[in-house]
Amino acid sequence: MQYEFLKNFPKRMKNVGLYAVLLQNSLQKTIWKQLGFQKTDEQFNMIFAVMLYIMEQSLKEENCTMDDIGAYIDTVNVQYFKKDMNYDDCRGLGDFIVNVVLSNEGRAMHFDGYDFGQNAYQSMHISYVANKIVYIDQDFRRTSYYLTDDGYNLLLATLEIENNMKLTVHEIIFQLHLEKQSYDKAVDDIKNVFNLLRIQLQKIQEAMGRIRRNALNYSVRDYEKILHENLATIDDTKKKFQNYREMVKSRVRELEETNINVKSLGGKEEEKLKNLREIEQYLNRTIDEHQKILGSHLDLKALYTRELENLTRMSLIRRFSFRAELYDKILEKSAALEELEYFLRPLFNQDAKKGYNLNKAFQLQRPLRRRMEEDIGEQLDFDGEQWQREQERLRREKLERYEKSLTCLLKMAACSGTGEITLGEAGRVADKDAEVRDALIPNVEIFKEIMVELIRNREMEIAVLKKERSQFIQDRQGEFQLNEMLLQLVEENPDLEAVEKVTVCRLEEKGAVTFEGILSEDGQRKSIRCSDVKICVKMKAV
User: How far apart are CA 15 and CA 157, in angstroms?
Assistant: First the structure.
């Protein structure tokens, strides 16, 4: 064949025919306009919505009768399309889509694709749906519809693979065909890979052109999208294709060494050798294209940065009217012509000429990086011990606030008479006494962390916690640990030494509890709103 790219032309035309036949069966049908579907895009949206429903039922292995399709169309129409149709109209539309548009009223559907190898048209059969007989409740006989292979191929082709996954998918297919020695298919795969790389390079070039014309017309979202696509393309792709090229070269050498005289090769071996050489050629072009994408990716980043910086500088430029500020002034006072150079001189500013300083030539030159490190070292020079002492003091103060808050909450529960208290009750007690309020809620962050830890642990038995402490060694100084602080309070506080168990549960049936005007760590007043919680403290029997 003279043109190798026409080799699988009928296969391509089969995919085209899936759309063409569907369009032919749907157009010029009066039922669409009778039901309110005036535009072609509305009609095709409904057709594909019905096909997707049939596919979903087929995948779930459930029946898909005409009653089911009519009910589905009725639901979709009420929620989305909002056409003036009742259930009978929806069922009639479903019957029209399935039996006329998708089945051509039972007549076989064909599409002719020209086969350039045979120099003749090849008739290809097309079928979207098929049906089978099912029994509903073992008594009622119904016809159930399901998609054929052509129907599945049509629907799966409508949902494209994401751009950053196309290259990976084609690369995997190319690798599989190469391993199976299906070199004729591998040629088409590597061509597809090369085309995807060429498309990506063209995208970068078009983006650079748009940025050069006006960077403000190129959004940050577009820039982020093309950067992600470039990185996905660049990521270890070059190394993979170099490995593929070495594999192809080794197989070419094997074929040539097995048959030293190329003319003595059989037909299959000669075809393999031809395909391998073509694959090697496209692999070389693919690696070159990959290198171009890498260079263009860096150029795109530099260009976008430079253009945005230029736009930022332009906002600082002071503009003036030449006529108002120059011509009119000179006409009013012609003597100003003698001082015109002061006005025009800034327009011709040039960079200062550089001269060679002999004194610098004889000075000791230090590496720039070392000098920068020395400068940084001088700036960060401080008393390390004093800083550590200050940090330790801040940690102790913070832990004291945690301890006061938890102690206040446990004492409220222990001294309530019932051994339990809710968060709402504790809030009402705190509202009456400012000192209790400050102890219970030191700030937003500390109170929030304590409540979250209490709700997360739910039940805490002192005996179990003591046993765990004796078995494990923990070194987490300066951090809030609920279990450790609870043991510390029980052991050091006489009012809590009889505590045996602490239980916390959330009260879903009660409303939320709100604390107004609580200070946060950054000094702002905020409101805390959280679910009501009950804290129960079980004391040892005396």
Answer: 9
